[in-house]
């Protein structure tokens, strides 16, 4: 066998090295494109970045992706998930930060889902179990065929959601919750402490409105509307400059009525509605917001509930 001349060997070496370098710096596109999906859930930002391989007619589960082995949950670099606030995922707490995201597929009903603190790594080749921050279990389910691997973040409202992994005919859903109520409490308190005295009622009124319209946090909503009543000054110049005081007072009373109704006190809630409906020839909360806030519909329902009770 003839040896290659030295100059040809050197030329070949540098040619292959250059090709490898070109690939590494991105001149040649990856076969599995890098993708990301982001969502803002209440006060929390969530971002997932992953390589998206295609099925291409191949057997995936138990073949290209082997069972009983840690997998990068995508292609090329390890999949990453970044959260701006701590969340609860599958019932377990995950602190805020950026993590690599791995799956441990099995033939059984439960897969391991792994969050590892080393977020920048190639595949799972350097995966170190000691760096795991959280491991939870999730059950895969059958799904419509997906040629390209994809992630979705589904917003179920008020910090509740699902992170969904889908590829081939398999789907894996992870439920999560953000610390929405705790963050809302902190924000209301900060605003209430820092605003001028004539505006301090506002954050508690807005917080109570949000809670009673969207959550089951009735006791907290009641505490906040009481606080708003205490802090509100009907003689404030600001109130007259932006809204007549009768509108502000009406807004507080209407929110209080909804709290009372949620607690089953329909009699007192209906008494408030009767007061709100007075002064039809004036600028009042009812005249301005009655239709938008469906005051009459609420009144009819509360009367029905009062009769039934």
Description of the structure:
The chain folds into two domains: 30-178, no CATH class; 180-308, Serine Threonine Protein Phosphatase 5, Tetratricopeptide repeat, CATH 1.25.40. Helices cover 38% and strands 28% of the residues. It contains nine helices and ten strands. The strands form two sheets. The chain has a six-stranded antiparallel sheet, with no helix packed on it. Strands 5-4-10-9 form a four-stranded antiparallel sheet, with no helix packed on it. The longest helix is centred in the N-terminal third of the chain and has 19 residues, at 6-24.
Write a brief structural summary.
This protein is 38% helix and 28% strand. By secondary structure, it is an alpha+beta fold. It folds into 2 domains: 30-178, no CATH class; 180-308, Serine Threonine Protein Phosphatase 5, Tetratricopeptide repeat.
Biggest sheet, open or closed, and with what strands and sense?
6 strands, antiparallel
Extended strand count: 10
Q: What distance separates the N and C termini?
A: 100 Å
* Assembly state of the chains shown: single chain
Looking at the structure, what is the overall shape?
Answer: elongated
**What average pLDDT do the residues reach?**
88
What is the total number of structural domains? Answer: 2
- The low-confidence runs, each spanning 5 or more residues with pLDDT under 50, are 6-25
């Amino acid at each position: 066998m003839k040896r290659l001349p030295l100059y040809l060997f050197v030329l070949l070496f540098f040619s292959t090295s250059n090709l490898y370098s070109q690939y590494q710096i991105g001149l040649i596109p990856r076969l599995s494109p890098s993708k990301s999906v982001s969502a803002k859930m209440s006060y929390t930002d969530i971002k997932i970045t992953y390589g998206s391989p295609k099925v291409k007619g191949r057997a995936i589960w138990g073949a290209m992706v082997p069972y009983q082995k840690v997998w990068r949950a995508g292609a090329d670099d390890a999949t990453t998930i970044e959260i701006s606030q701590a969340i609860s995922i599958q019932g377990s707490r995950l602190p805020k930060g950026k993590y690599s995201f791995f799956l441990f597929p099995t033939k059984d009903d439960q897969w391991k889902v792994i969050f590892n603190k080393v977020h920048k790594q190639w595949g799972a080749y350097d995966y170190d179990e000691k760096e795991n921050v959280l491991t939870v279990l999730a059950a895969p389910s059958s799904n419509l065929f997906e040629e390209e691997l994809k992630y979705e973040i589904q917003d179920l409202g008020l910090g509740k959601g699902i992170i969904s992994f889908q590829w081939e005919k398999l789907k894996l859903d992870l439920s999560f919750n953000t610390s929405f109520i705790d963050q809302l409490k902190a924000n209301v308190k900060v605003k209430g402490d820092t605003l001028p005295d004539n505006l301090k009622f506002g954050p508690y009124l807005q917080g109570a409105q949000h809670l009673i319209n969207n959550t089951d946090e009735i006791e907290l909503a009641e505490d906040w509307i009481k606080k708003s009543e205490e802090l509100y000054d009907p003689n404030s110049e600001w109130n007259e400059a932006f809204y007549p005081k009768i509108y502000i007072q009406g807004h507080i009373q209407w929110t209080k009525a909804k709290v009372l109704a949620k607690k089953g006190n329909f009699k007192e809630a209906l008494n408030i509605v009767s007061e709100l409906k007075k002064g039809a020839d004036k600028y009042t909360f009812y005249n301005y917001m009655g239709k938008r806030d469906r005051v009459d519909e609420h009144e009819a329902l509360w009367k029905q509930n009062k009769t039934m009770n």
